[in-house]
Amino acid sequence: MMEINTGNKLILEKIDGIEGKIDRMFQLLNKKQKQNESEYVTVAEAAVMLRRSEITIRRLIKEGKIKAIKPNGGTNKHERFLVERKSVESIFK
Predict the structure, then answer these.
(1) Neighbours of 53 (CB within 10 A)
(2) Could you give phi then psi for residue 68, rounded to 5 degrees?
(3) How does pLDDT run across 39-84, given as a tens digit for each residue?
């Protein structure tokens, strides 16, 4: 069996620490992604919720009656929208 010297031991401890930090970052990213998913719905989901067509939902977004975002900054004309769930639900009220 090979003996681990002090230098290698320190390196292994640092690697363990880095792995722990990476795991924590992934947990935080997953949590944030789940929060975002629950705050926003797709145009198709909004259409089902409101019993309207996707074209109508896009028109309501354009008119400012429903709030939506383009997750990648909106630089692409054909990028999909994510619609604020609260905005869709407020139409029911």
Answers:
(1) 12
(2) -150, 160
(3) 889 899 999 999 999 999 999 999 999 999 887 766 666 668 899 9
